[in-house]
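**Paired protein data**
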Amino acid sequence: MTSVRVNELISVAGQPDAADFADFAARGFAGVINARPDGEEPGQPGNAAEKAAAAAAGLSYSFVPVKGADITEADIRAFQAAMAEAKGPVLAHCKSGTRALTLFALGEVLDGRMKSGDVEAFGQGHGFDLAGARRFLEKRARQAPDVKAFFHPATSSVQYVVTDPATRRCAIIDPVLDFDETSGATGTASADAILAYIAAEHLALEWILDTHPHADHFSAAHYLKGRTGAPTAIGEHVTDVQALWKDIYHFPALETDGSQWDRLFADGETFKIGAMEARVMFSPGHTLASITYVVGDAAFVHDTVFTPDSGTARTDFPGGSAAALWRSIQAILLLPEETRLFSGHDYQPNGRHPRCESTVAAQKRDNPHISGKDEAAYVALRQARDRTLAKPKLMLHALQVNIRGGRLPEPEENGRRYLKIPLDGL
């Protein structure tokens, strides 16, 4: 098949057949990047078939599926990473080649190798219309706050730094303290990477925020407060979660007044990150205490909705409710359609790259748990799916730490800390 050579490292093309992959290898390509979502049209080979064809031809293969209007920086960075991993020239394709070239061109702009005003001419020079790339850059220039995501592969969690670009003041949302359940080892590498980013960008940290007590990772909030002195905060209904799990763990001395955090936010309460106003939305359903932070055109929704191809969060933990989550999701979907939604997990369906950002419009249009559903249908779907899911492997480890604001158990007389696991408690 024909392709368009962009430079010595990348060529772009329309949809290939599986039989074309051997020819790609013969032409000197080291890898293929598939930027096309599965199921766009009948007869499309799809990710699984392309991955097998690439392996048979001795090519590296990466799946970075995008829709033109929904491209995010995470997609651009994943495309760049796929190019680097190929260790040689790549053939990147979508349906026509436009999205593949868009991802490459946007990466060049973000890294300063191309001016944003030159993108359309660059596309025209290769026979493609990159007006969509121009619109992406124009929209990005208008967006505030700045959002930096940190994906945590061990737990599929996403941590965030949200920054007011005018004042360079920021907040950390849902930081992870590393924990290996097989050895009992804890670590701070993930949290330290966030601190390193803040230092490199010359930001001033104002808040350390949790959206809820997490069931799949330890919170690094207490560690980060010790390193920075910044105040910690969570939703006020954390006290309900503390009371529930106090009984499960049999922690008679546990204070259940939320005093482990510096501030407890009520529904509708506002606070400042630099000069930007942040608003709190009570978003129960996944847990009794879940909240959403709305900052400018960004909403940090954690375990409510994931990216549209991943659906919505589970509701089968103690205190969870599918009906409550449906109502929380509907409140989130009342935000302006262009609002950026940042999820707290990504489980990479079909092996695609990690994604954490969507929009209200994309959720309404593409999320199969939401689009075309009413409350009864959603509750039935969510409850049926929850019955098939195993409990998170770190749930009993993590919640005893997280209901204490990220504090590990106090050392015993031998200087070591011990977790407590209730048997037959759930």
Observations:
- The radius of gyration is 23 Å.
